[in-house]
Structure formats: C-alpha cells, structure tokens
Design brief:
Mean pLDDT: 86
Order of helices and strands: EHHHEEEEEEEEEEEEEEEEEEEEEE
Strand content: over 45%
Number of strands: 23
Distance between the termini: 40 Å
Low-confidence stretches: 6-20, 23-38
Helix content: under 10%
Oligomer: single chain
Number of helices: 3
Structural class: mainly beta
Radius of gyration: 21 Å
Length: 350
C-alpha cells in the first residue's frame, strides 16, 4: 500500500504542530500517526537503538555548495541535534546548542498506572508553556498551542468504536472552527473515505481510498467541490501504475506519497502536473530500516539526478557516532565527500 506524506519528522514536538489547512494537517497526521504508534518509541522513530538517554550531534560543514531547491528530498535523514529520552524512549528534550547554550523545548510527561502516556506538556527555554497534548486509549485526543501563556490554537481527535480516527476539528484562538476533517475507516484500519471542510463549511477536499488485498491494488482519488478529479494515484505490487494531476498546483494535496517498504527498500514519490512522478529510492542494510546506506533520485523521465551514499562508524548498539555523506550528481561527475557528522550518545543503565 501507499501512504501520503509531507514530512519525515518523527519528533512529536515537530510532527504534531499542525497547521490550519486541511491538506497539510492530513499529510502530517498520516506520517506521524493519527493515533499513537504503540510499536515504536520516539527514540526508535528517530532512528535510535537501545536505551538511549541523550544524543548530541555535531553537524559538519558542507565541503561544497549543493543547491537542493526543488528537490523532492534533502540529504539529511532523521535524527536530532540535542535530544534526551526517558527510560521508555519518550522524548523529554529537543533542540540545539547556540552560543554554548541549549535552545529548544523540554517535555513533561504524565503516565497512568500502566505506564501509558496521558499528557505531554512542551516548555520553551524560558520555562513558558508552548503546547499541551492529551492522550486516550487510541491516541491523541486534544492538542493545544500557546503563545505568551495564552492558548492560540487547539484541536480535538475523536475515534470510532474500532479505535480509528473518525473526526479531527481544529480551532483558532477564539475557539472558532477552522477545519473539520471526517474519516471513514474499515474495521482493519484501512481508510475508505475522507472529507475536509474549512472555516465557512466549504469543502476543501473529498477523498476515496481503496485497497484490494487480493490484488494489492491501492487507489487514492481526491475530488474538488464540483466532483472533478484533482489527483488520482494507483499502485500495485510495489509499483506506481499511474499518477494523474488535473490542477496546476505544485503543492496539491496528494502530490507526495510513499509505498510500504519491500525488504530493505523504500520508495517515495513526488507527482508532477504532466502525469510523471519523481522516484526517491532509499536502500537500507536490512529489513529493520536502520541507518540507510544509499539514496537515489530519478526524475519523471527516469533519469538519475542524485545519488547519496552514507558511511558510518557505529557503537556497540549499532547507533552511528560518525556519518560520512557522499554525493553524486551529473554536474559533479563523480562521487564526492559532502559532509562528515559526528555525535555522542549516552545510555540508561540497568
């Protein structure tokens, strides 16, 4: 199957900063999960293995200029600059070092008697509240954003009897509805249909999402208010059959999507208005999808435009401590060292 995607960030503090636009909201949620992911911790989502306590990354200086404008992918993959996690792998601090001082957010976590997260509060460097997220048995139930101690945004998640998201409503600082998204989901969790409405109850999009497990055919169609097709996608057996875009919008909802991994390979796509699509292939050393080895970008004509290779020095738990990024483009003509990144990790003891 395929999944829509707009961001690869897995850090809760970044991924769940939703925006007051239907399409972007759904894209963010599709990546981060409308409900919490009980299979992976936040540390694992950030590409880490083992009981990681802290991560401190020193990004190397680029060896040469590389204009990434218009590319469907950036060279940096995952991770964070300065992060701390609790013993359960939940993020408690995220940011960077500026002029020798930590600048970023801290997270206060509350759990129930079973250890499940029920509340997360995000605090800025000055200790002032920036966000508050509440969780229920199926995932996020409410999210609030603050500025100067005043709530400026909040959203509410509601789930169906099977524990799948059925409605997401976003409100502005005056508690007026800005977007309302309705979703129908099958008992197995596959999305069937979705609608999103704006602040004046105008339709932003209507989506039909179908998947046939017997044939492995997945189709996704987005309709405009007049019923015309805006974007249509069909995939089967790990390949895109076709992409159709009937609106001349470089940021149209549905343009970015990725397929479920097959073995150690992950494909991500960016559709184009002429019906072609860019294919970004990421290759990992094994099916655990940890520490990518190679990335290749081919444009809509199938021409290789970028190749990236990663070399690592690993610690005893196979987290990288040094990463060398090598780049090839037609302009370079040969594989060239682009950057060397280093990081220090500490771990929780027994």
């Amino acid at each position: 199957m395929a999944v829509l995607a707009e961001t690869a960030s897995k850090e809760l503090g970044d991924a769940m900063k939703v925006l007051l636009q239907c399409g972007l909201v759904t894209l963010l949620v599709a990546t981060a999960g409308w409900a919490s992911d009980g299979k992976k911790t936040e540390a694992q989502n950030n590409g880490l293995v083992g009981p990681v306590r802290t991560v401190s990354t020193q990004e190397g200086e680029a060896k040469f200029a590389l204009n990434q404008a218009g590319w469907p992918v950036l060279l940096e993959i995952g991770g964070c600059k300065e992060c701390e996690y609790d013993r359960q792998g939940t993020l408690t601090r995220s940011g960077g070092i500026v002029e020798g001082e930590f600048r970023g957010d801290r997270y206060q976590i509350a759990r129930d008697e079973r250890g499940n997260i029920v509340e997360q509060v995000r605090l800025g460097a000055d200790g002032e509240i920036g966000g508050r997220t509440l969780y229920g048995p199926y995932g996020i139930t409410e999210q609030n954003e603050y500025a100067g101690g005043v709530r400026v945004f909040h959203a509410e998640w509601r789930y169906d009897s099977n524990g799948h998201l059925g409605e997401l409503v976003q409100y502005d600082r005056d508690d007026k509805i800005q977007t309302r998204t309705l979703r129908q989901t099958g008992a197995s969790g596959n999305i069937k249909e979705e609608w999103c409405y704006g602040s004046k109850d105008e339709l932003s999009y209507h989506i039909l999402d179908t998947y046939n497990p017997k044939t492995d055919v997945w189709t996704w169609t987005s309709y405009a208010e007049d019923g015309s097709v805006k974007v249509e996608i069909e995939t089967q057996d790990g390949k895109v059959h076709f992409y159709r875009q009937n609106v001349n919008d470089p940021n149209v909802f549905g343009q970015h999507f990725f397929l479920d991994p097959i073995g150690n390979t992950q494909h991500s796509f960016r559709g184009n208005a002429d019906g072609t699509y860019d294919d970004v292939t990421t290759i990992y050393p094994d099916e655990k999808l940890h520490n990518p080895e190679r990335l290749e970008w081919r444009d809509g004509t199938g021409t290789l435009r970028l190749k990236v290779e990663y070399e690592y020095e690993l610690d005893g738990l196979r987290n990288w401590t040094t990463r060398r990024t090598w780049v090839w483009t037609p302009e370079l003509g040969e594989k060239t060292l682009y950057r060397v990144d280093m990081r220090r990790l500490t771990y929780w003891g027994n």
